[in-house]
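Can't paste images in this forum, so I'm doing it all in text. The chain is below; anyone willing to post the predicted structure tokens underneath?
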Amino acid sequence: MTWLWILIAVVVVVAVVIVVRAGRGFGPFFGHRSVVLGGWLAGAIDAYEQGQALHGAIRDASRPGAKDAEARWASIERSVADLDRRLNALRNTARDPEDRADAVAALASLQELRSAIDGRGGQGGVIGARMDAFEKSLRRLRPPERHLW
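Text version of the structure:
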């Protein structure tokens, strides 16, 4: 009779393991396409972090007397192009209209920042204002509480 209980326990443990492993690819909280571990929210968080790094790089390059300013601006232009691609991908993969609108707003803000950078001769105030607007649009891009309830 003891062997029957052991057999039942083994079957239950194996069933639980199978259900958990199979469930990882499905649902909103498991798998690489989940809102927690991957998918749109992970892309939004990556874009946010990339945008914050860009913000810091622009701030450093805009300081008077910055060393290697031209090399920094060339690197910034590449970063802007990379972030533009990432934000376009977010816009195209957004499932929620609100997420899509936030991605579009971040893209528009990035384009305004890009135009200020391109004409940066003596327009430090314009760049600063566009950076502030860009940072606000990035913050709206990734509020996790909207995705996790």
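Confidence is low (pLDDT under 50) at residues 31-37. Helices lie at 2-23, 39-62, 69-93, 97-118, 124-141.
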